[in-house]
Specification:
Blueprint (H helix, E strand, L loop, with lengths): L2 H6 L9 H5 L6 E8 L3 E2 L10 H16 L8 E5 L6 H12 L7 E4 L5 H14 L5 E8 L14 H4 L2 H5 L4 H11 L4 H21 L9 E6 L6 E6 L11 H4 L23 E11 H7 L5 E10 L8 H13 L8 E4 L4 H11 L12 H4 L6 H16 L3 E8 L3 E9 L2
Parallel strand pairs: 3-4, 3-5, 10-11
Antiparallel strand pairs: 1-8, 1-9, 2-8, 5-8, 6-7, 9-12, 11-12
Helix pairs in contact: 3-4, 5-15, 8-13, 12-13
Length: 415
């Protein structure tokens, strides 16, 4: 029995294929709203001067306005964020300032790059358990205001264990390990990275992102005078038009000291600021409120892998979540797999034999950016938007997770 089957043996599923997932039940957990901010370059882009609590405030306010749901109906809020210090203070204060009554509770969650997805999963599980009827998940990250300083220093009682020590190593090291261990060449990484840029460019020019993006009005600070003025940001600014595999070959290795030195600033995810919001509730409640149902949340799986090759997480999480959902890869119309690094992204596609025409069809984190806590929620907004445009049925989202994990979720679009 292989590893995926061993993991799946811990779970049981009453599903019998896609038809079972499409059946409607008043207790279904459904999504009625999924939107995101523009994603902008850290330290350079339109959101660079926006504090984390300001990004939260803006996302909270827009959720009230655009979701058309009375904020007093929210049974709980879960905010996924990774680098924000004192995140609970920022999140609760921002929710109150946005207009959520003090009767609405709030929590924050941090499972590194999956934090936005874990926020959605937490709320979905609370609804499924009957604890709440309506819940809000937010993913947010200001990597401009909170640059990642790397892992902590471990106690010598822990660091003497090699795998434990690996947990704190730089992510670039793990990318090079994946590339070297699984023979993912620089050429192949540059080619798949170029595809990400080309797809994102085409989607942006065609206006595909417009339906999922809510323009953000934030402060911009003059670097010389310190004066802060209001600006409105409405477009992703990390998409590099005209990118080709040949142009990416000219970028020098970011980590020549590790592995084969194949990871570069052109074939890895961009450091980015952004936020996303997903509103969930029971089907019964959505229908009583007369809200459009975008999709049904099916399930989420999380699995562990060796920290030194943490990027391979999706290759185990995706088969596990499909087995839990009772469907096959052939049932999936679109995949949103986080492009933390081209090495691990390409490995996942190859390992699972995924058709590239179904994966990150409008580009991924290499072209759009990867605001850590935001990404999991952003992928849902992006994936459901494109699923609707194509009139597809099943979306799978997935990402690798620092310290050695992978997560994946299944969603079924409503007709």
């Amino acid at each position: 029995m292989d590893r995926v089957k061993q993991l799946a043996a811990h779970f049981s599923s009453s599903s019998n294929g896609l038809a079972a997932l499409e059946r409607k039940n008043p207790d279904d957990v459904v999504i009625t709203f999924a939107k995101r901010s523009p994603l902008t370059k850290a330290k350079k882009g339109g959101l660079k001067d926006a504090r984390p609590d300001e990004l939260m405030l803006e996302m909270f306010k827009h959720t009230i306005t655009h979701s058309k749901v009375d904020p007093a109906l929210i049974g709980d809020i879960c905010v996924g964020t990774v680098l924000t210090p004192a995140a609970n203070y920022h999140a609760k204060a921002a929710a109150l300032a946005a207009g959520y009554p003090d009767t609405v509770p709030l929590q924050t969650i941090n499972r590194f790059c999956s934090s936005g997805l874990m926020a959605v999963t937490t709320i979905a599980n609370q609804i499924r358990a009957g604890q709440i009827e309506v819940g809000l998940a937010i993913g947010v990250e200001s990597m401009s205001q909170n640059p990642d300083s790397g892992g902590p220093t471990l106690s010598e009682l822990i660091s003497c264990n090699a795998a434990a020590q690996d947990c704190t190593q730089p992510m670039g090291w793990t990318s090079e390990n994946v590339a070297a261990d699984f023979e993912v060449s620089r050429k192949d990484q540059d080619e798949v990275a170029a595809l990400s840029f080309q797809r994102a460019e085409a989607a942006q020019k065609a206006g595909y992102f417009d339906r999922e993006i809510i323009p953000f009005t934030v402060f911009s600070q003059d670097s010389k005078t310190g004066e802060r003025t209001r600006i409105t940001v409405s477009k992703d600014d990390g998409v590099r038009y005209g990118t080709t595999a040949d142009s990416l070959t000219k970028i020098r290795a970011a980590f020549p000291q590790w592995g084969n030195g194949t990871t570069t600033g052109g074939n890895a995810s961009q450091i980015t600021d952004g936020a996303a919001s997903v509103l969930l509730m029971t089907r019964r409640k959505a229908e009583s409120l007369g809200l459009p149902i975008l999709a049904k949340f099916i399930t989420t799986s999380v699995t562990g892998v060796a920290p030194r090759i943490m990027g391979i997480g999706p290759a185990y999480a995706i088969p596990l979540v499909l087995q839990q959902a009772g469907i096959s890869q052939d049932d999936v119309d679109l995949y949103e797999i986080n492009e933390a690094f081209a090495s691990q992204y390409l490995y996942t596609i190859r390992k699972l034999g995924l058709p590239i025409e179904k994966v990150n069809v409008n580009g991924g984190a290499i072209a759009l950016g990867h605001p850590l806590g935001c990404t999991g929620a952003r992928q849902i907004a992006t994936g459901l938007n494109e699923l609707e445009r194509r009139k597809g049925k099943v979306l799978v989202t997935s990402m690798c997770i620092g310290t050695g994990m992978g997560a994946a979720s299944v969603f079924v679009r409503e007709d």
